[in-house]
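Per your request, structure below.
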C-alpha cells in the first residue's frame, strides 16, 4: 500500500466477529465483490480469539478495528491480524499507544491511525473551537508522533468526517503535512444512493488530485454494495483495471427507436452476471449511436427493425428482428452478450475480421434514411408553430 501500489478497496464486516463461520462467509463474499482488504471489529475478547481462526482462512488481509481497549489491540496482534486500526479519540493513554506500537513492530504489521470527526479529542475540540481540518490533522499527527517515538513508521492515516467539504479539506491538509499512505472515507455516509454520492464526491475529488492509497465507502447497506461501489469508482477513474462490464448508455431522446432504459437495464444485468471486462454501449438510435459511442469496445444501437451491433464504432452486424416472433429486447441482449463473450475470447482484431462486410453499408443507408425523414426528431419547429398559434389566440 502507498507508493506505486494500486489504490485498494476496503470494506468492513457486519457480523459478530466471534461467529467465525459467518464472518468468514462475509469476507469471502466481500473479496469476490472487489474488496482487497477487509476490516473486522475486535470489540471483545471473543472477537480477538475468533480472529486467530479467521485470519489464516481469509482470502484477503484482515484489519482489526480496535475501540477503547488497547489490550484488544495487543490481543488482535497476537491473533495474527494483518493490521490494526486505532482511533486516537478513544485510546487516550500515551503509554497504551506505545505498548501497541511495540507489539505491532515485533509482529511486523502496520497500524492505521483512524481519526473520526465524531470522536475528536475534547481538548482539541475546545482548542480549535469545533471540528476543523486543523484539529483532525493535529489529532492524527500527534498519535503518529507517539508511534514514531517508538521507532514505528509502518503507518496509515485517515481523517474521516461525515461532512464532505470537511473531509476533503482535512485530507488535503494532511497530504501537505506528511507522506504516510492515506485511507480515504466519508464516514457515516448513509444509505444509497445518497451515501454513494457523498462517498464519490469526497473520495473521488481527492483521488483525482493524487491523494489516497486505500478507500472505503461507509454505506448503511449490505457491505457488498460498499465494495462494489468503491471498486467501480476506482475503475471509472482508471486507477484499477476493469473487472466487470462498464455499461454506457445514452440518456435517450425524441429520436430513440426503443425504450433505452429497458434495453440498457436488461443488458447491464446480463453482462454483469457474466463478469465480462468490457465497455459496452447501449444507444437509442442508429443515427447517432455508433458514432457517439465509438470509444466503447462493443455497442448496440437500436434501429426501426432491429439493431446495429458495432465494435469500436464499426458496425459489424445488422440484427433483423421479427417483433412478432420474440421479445425484441431479449433477442437484442442475447446477441450483444454472445458478441461480448466472443470479443473477450477472440479479441477485437479477430472480431472485426469476422464482420459482415455488408453491415456497415446497410447501417449507413438506414441512418441516412432516418436522418432525411426526421431532421427535427423532437418536433421543435412544429411545436413552436402550434405554441405561437395558441399564444396569438389568447
Ligand atoms: S443516441 Fe440517438 S436516441 Fe440516444 S440520445 Fe443520442 S440521438 Fe438520442
Amino acid at each position: 500500500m502507498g507508493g506505486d501500489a494500486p489504490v485498494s478497496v476496503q470494506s468492513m464486516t457486519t457480523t459478530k466477529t466471534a461467529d467465525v463461520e459467518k464472518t468468514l462467509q462475509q469476507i469471502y463474499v466481500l473479496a469476490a465483490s472487489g474488496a482487497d482488504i477487509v476490516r473486522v471489529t475486535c470489540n471483545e475478547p471473543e472477537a480477538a480469539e475468533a480472529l486467530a481462526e479467521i485470519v489464516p482462512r481469509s482470502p484477503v488481509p484482515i484489519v482489526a478495528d480496535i475501540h477503547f481497549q488497547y489490550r484488544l489491540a495487543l490481543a488482535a496482534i497476537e491473533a495474527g491480524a494483518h493490521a490494526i486500526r486505532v482511533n486516537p479519540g478513544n485510546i487516550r493513554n500515551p503509554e497504551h499507544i506505545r505498548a501497541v506500537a511495540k507489539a505491532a513492530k515485533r509482529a511486523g504489521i502496520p497500524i492505521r491511525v483512524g481519526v473520526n470527526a465524531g470522536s475528536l479529542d475534547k481538548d482539541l475540540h475546545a482548542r480549535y473551537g469545533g471540528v476543523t481540518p486543523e484539529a483532525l490533522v493535529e489529532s492524527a499527527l500527534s498519535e503518529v508522533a507517539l508511534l514514531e517515538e517508538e521507532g514505528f513508521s509502518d503507518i496509515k492515516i485517515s481523517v474521516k468526517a461525515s461532512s464532505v467539504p470537511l473531509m476533503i479539506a482535512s485530507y488535503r491538509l494532511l497530504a501537505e503535512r506528511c507522506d504516510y499512505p492515506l485511507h480515504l472515507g466519508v464516514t457515516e455516509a448513509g444509505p444509497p444512493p445518497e451515501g454513494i454520492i457523498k462517498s464519490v464526491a469526497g473520495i473521488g475529488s481527492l483521488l483525482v488530485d493524487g491523494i489516497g492509497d486505500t478507500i472505503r465507502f461507509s454505506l448503511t447497506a449490505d457491505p457488498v454494495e460498499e465494495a462494489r461501489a468503491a471498486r467501480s469508482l476506482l475503475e471509472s477513474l482508471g486507477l484499477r483495471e476493469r473487472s466487470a462490464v462498464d455499461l454506457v448508455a445514452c440518456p435517450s431522446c425524441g429520436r430513440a427507436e426503443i425504450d433505452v432504459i429497458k434495453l440498457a437495464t436488461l443488458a447491464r444485468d446480463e453482462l454483469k452476471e457474466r463478469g465480462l471486462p468490457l465497455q459496452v454501449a447501449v444507444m437509442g438510435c442508429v443515427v447517432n449511436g455508433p458514432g457517439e459511442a465509438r470509444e466503447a469496445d462493443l455497442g448496440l444501437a437500436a434501429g426501426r427493425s432491429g439493431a446495429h451491433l458495432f465494435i469500436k464504432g464499426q458496425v459489424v452486424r445488422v440484427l433483423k428482428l421479427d417483433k412478432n416472433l420474440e421479445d425484441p429486447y431479449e433477442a437484442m441482449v442475447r446477441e450483444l452478450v454472445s458478441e461480448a463473450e466472443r470479443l473477450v475470447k477472440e479479441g477485437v482484431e479477430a472480431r472485426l475480421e469476422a464482420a459482415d462486410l455488408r453491415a456497415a453499408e446497410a447501417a449507413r443507408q438506414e441512418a441516412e434514411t432516418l436522418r432525411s425523414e426526421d431532421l427535427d426528431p423532437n418536433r421543435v419547429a412544429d411545436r413552436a408553430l402550434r405554441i405561437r398559434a395558441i399564444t396569438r389566440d389568447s
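The domain at 246-374 is CATH 3.30.413.10 (Sulfite Reductase Hemoprotein; domain 1).

Regards,
D.
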